[in-house]
Design a protein that fits this description.
The protein is of the alpha+beta class. It has one domain. Helix content is about 65%, strand content about 10%. Helix 3 packs across helix 5. The site of zinc ion has 8 residues, from helix 4 and helix 5.
Amino acid sequence: MSNASVAQAVNRVSVGAALQAARIEAHEHQAWITAINRAALNLEACKWQFDGDDLRIESATNSGTYYTVTAAGCLCKAGAAGKACWHRAARRLLIKAAELAELASEISAVEGLELAEALGKAAAELAPLQTYARQWNAATIARNAAELYA
Ligand SMILES: [Zn+2]
């Protein structure tokens, strides 16, 4: 994706949908749940730039200090120690938001829906299931689906 389409794809709605999916995925890992929740708050409060792969984001505690988060990790104190940090959670949220938006634009084209409606549909149905299919075994998928649609 180009930078412009990344910027369009990453918005409050797609990040919200990504947040919902991420909380479900991380539900057995409290450190990551905490990091995801801080990321959601700090993405609103801190300055950041995201090119679809690398995230440059301002420290929540030292304004003017920036961290660059890549697929290799984050160089903040926690990240350098191999611990969960909200910067990495933020990068994952933005990547997931962009994926959801891309999926929504396909749904929108195929089904003739408005983009916002297609995004809701992608988040509610397809993205969680696809993510589960990649990352979880069948038993976990079944358990999460039962919780999600109960
Ligand atoms: Zn970090």
